Protein: Phospholipid-transporting ATPase
Amino acid sequence: VLIPISLYVSIELVKLGQVFFLHSDLDLYDEETDLSIQCRALNITEDLGQIQYIFSDKTGTLTENKMVFRRCTIMGSEYCHQENAKRLETQKELDSDSEEWTQYQCLSFPARWAQGPAMMRSQRGAHPLRRSQSVRVPMQGHSRQRSVGRCESSQPPVAFSSSVEKDVTPDKNLLTKVRDSALWLETSSDARPAKPSHSTTSSIADFFLALTICNSVMVSTTTEPRRRVTIPPSNKALGTSLEKIQHLFQRLKLLSLSQSFSSTAPSDADLGESLEPNVPTMDSDEKDDTSVGSGECSTDGGYRSSIWEQGDILGSDSGASLEEGLETPVLGLAGPELCYEAESPDEAALVHAAHAYSFTLVSRTPEQVTVRLPQGTCLTFDLLFTLGFDSVRKRMSVVVRHPLTGEIIVYTKGADSVIMDLLEDPACVTDINVEKKLKKIQARTQKHLDLYARDGLRTLCIAKKVVSEEDFQRWVSFRREAEAALDNRDELLMETAQHLENQLTLLGATGIEDRLQEGVPDTIAALREAGIQLWVLTGDKQETAVNIAYSCRLLDQADTVYSINTESQETCESILNCALEEVKQFHEPQKQDRKLFGFRPPSKTSSTTSAMVPEVGLVIDGKALNAIFQGQLEKKFLELTQYCRSVLCCRSTPLQKSMIVKLVRDKLSVMTLSIGDGANDVSMIQAADIGIGIAGQEGMQAVMSSDFAISRFKHLKKLLLVHGHWCYSRLARMVVYYFYKNVCYVNLLFWYQFFCGFSGSTMIDYWQMIFFNLFFTSLPPIIFGVLDKDVSAETLLALPELYKSGQNSECYNTMTFWISMLDAFYQSLVCFFIPYLTYKDSDIDVFTFGTPVNTISLITILLHQAMEMKTW
Structure:
């Protein structure tokens, strides 16, 4: 039997052993997340050594996915947050300290904890959760006293909890304006000074309210689960006159203002540090026993009743002023710690940024969301509708009812490429001054967005819209019909969202930093030297993605970069033709060499001529990709990418990512690998030959759909260059050896047929033939396939070019196969005819002749195995 069943069994056992040693590699273990590599597919380990194209996500894959608020622009005014930038630089230096030194401080200097617990918090790193993305935020006010000598690391680890992520140093200029906007917001409508609809003061308040409200962040405390507080309207008569209520309110508010406008450093860092309300979770039967100052939520149906009231003093009396909508802070009460559970680190970063300016998210239920303002008062908004984020709309919206004005407001945040197209046209405004102001604000904001993107920051635009009651009820009816539709439901839902999310008023934009992971540039450089092409498929803004590409050495400053940013098929085809004509002038000889010899073009270090040729990079956005797929331009697109060292696809949807992977895999017939960390990368991971998921901050969807799971992008270097090379080399050589040993052994019986008249008889005992594959030659090939190392790990990492042997199938191809077969024929001749010539003309029986033949062949086959082994 040339291909015995033992070969299949041995291959499965070898792959199982390779997976075991993959799991045992400490270099693929991440101490911060306490995760090692996971092999979820046991039958494709050899494919790791033949990868030619890698498709990678950016956020969370190349970057840490630890979002840090850096800058913002509001109504055309940019706030650079220089103090926050300095703090981040200092924090980076602290992060470079070893974990052993931090633990030594915790054990050796307990007295320092009592003097400065914030110092210990700044040194404590983030501990990402696998599923629950939560953030622990202390409520402002009197913080809990920790016992001296207690290490804070004993607290349960939560995601997004490092000081780098949640601590934001406010900009001094913006801080002053926030105070003014908070005063304006908390002033009753009668006493509030008249402000135009596009005033900076009102827009600043709306901007931070949007950051706090327009998200899916859920809030709970360390002692209480998140639940809605429902208290029926109280029938208890008022025991205090309105004059006393007004006097108490003014006295508490003056005290709040005096501490908020203090010139001390703590007040600048956090407005109203010691004026924070207690957020109770009380049942309705506890209301009568509540003393003055206990905050309660009243939900009797109206928008005024959804605001926080002052215990039993502020009731539902019709003579009360609008100041009932503000809960007065309670002094001397320690509030519980809040736990923020965010779906993504972007939302957590924005909530922390608003918290730094004392716009704090206090609670969220399916019907209500409560925000604490800088002076400690709380507003509870009725949450009327939520339009979640999706990759097609690229935005999220919430519809709320303002507790003070009763207005129905739509807060929207999303990609600038989408939000800027949904803004109200300034030309439609009747007031010329307002028209000029709107145009100026939009132009300045776009300029700031481009600046943020060039700095590598992730950008989001914030906008709002006021909807009338009639229009909203009409839209709700339209939405309900779309949700109940059986045909074209997705299209109808998209249409309803577009109907609501238009004619928006721009409030501002944010810039969030997402730093590169450690070792990413070195990993990309090594993979490129190994002959692997790396494509980055991201949904980020083009300028942001290009900046990250230069930072991680995906692109070089000396490269010639072609950009395709058009949705016109004719324009896209013209750009592709022009780019192909230009690159062929320099790269055509290399392409001919590749066609002639079957190898990749030589690298720029291989010859003087190639060193003079500039490398080519390609940047393309989602609109251009649509034009390519719809205009049958895939062939020209792939031809151009053959000359590019790197390809960067920006603003791409999950569907486009999977289409690109399938296009390259099917049309070029190459081995592909996709790597990502989020749910939007699942389709790309499943489309590739090998899918790798990163266990990061965005859940486990990518890991669950992957073949291998790692915790850091840098682990890809050793996984491919070392383990991939070893797995392919071992398995390929083991398969060749299996064919060799079976051909060699079976040919012994073939040569004997010439002397027995082709009767089919054998000179070897049947038990010996059975034991040949079952015992004699079964274990050595398995050990060879699991443990052999043709090249050491250090050499493979130092010389990534050795990985090309797997790409070119040098260990198992037509030539190596037939050479092994000829060798097997030759050795079988020697093993048969030496005993034959020795016992010629003797009277020995057939089995006596077969025993030395079997012994010599067995020794020869095992010695051949020993010679093939590179590691002893």
Summary: The first strand starts at residue 38 and ends at 39. Confidence is low (pLDDT under 50) at residues 98-161, 226-335, 589-609. The chain has three domains: 31-63+514-711, 68-92+161-426+457-471+502-513, 722-868.
